Amino acid sequence: MGGAQAAAPAATNPAMEAAYQQYYQQFIAQGYDAQTAAAYAQQYAAQYVQQQG
User: Fold this and answer.
1) In this structure, what are the phi and psi dihedrals at residue 41, rounded to the nearest 5 degrees?
2) By CB neighbour count within 10 A (0-12 exposed, 13-18 middle, 19+ buried), where does 13 fall?
3) Rounded to whole angstroms, how far apart are CA atoms 33 and 12?
4) Mean per-residue pLDDT for 32-39?
5) How confident is the model at residue 6 (pLDDT cuts 50, 70, 90)?
6) How buried is residue 51: exposed, middle or buried, by Cβ count under 10 Å (0-12/13-18/19+)?
7) Residue 41 in 3-state DSSP?
8) Of 2, 5, 11, which is closest to residue 23 (Cα–Cα)?
């Protein structure tokens, strides 16, 4: 992983890790700053994993 990427909130959960990275990159691509993208990605990844469960 590159140093520019924010650390995932739940590295112990591969599904959440993957979802987080996907959302994070999506928000960055939309022009959000890293802090905002990380916060949104964390929320969306948590929701995504709950829905999958």
Assistant:
1) -60, -40
2) middle
3) 25
4) 97
5) low
6) exposed
7) helix
8) 5
Q: Which value, to the nearest 10 degrees, does the dihedral of the CA atoms of residues 21, 9, 17, 36 take?
A: -20
Residue 44, both tokens? 């969306």
Backbone angles phi, psi at 5, to 5 degrees: -80, 140
Q: Are 46 and 16 in contact (CB under 8 A)?
A: yes
CA-closest candidate to residue 24, choices 12, 39, 2: 39
Token pair of 38 as six digits: 């990380």
- Name residue, tokens 């469960």: 53
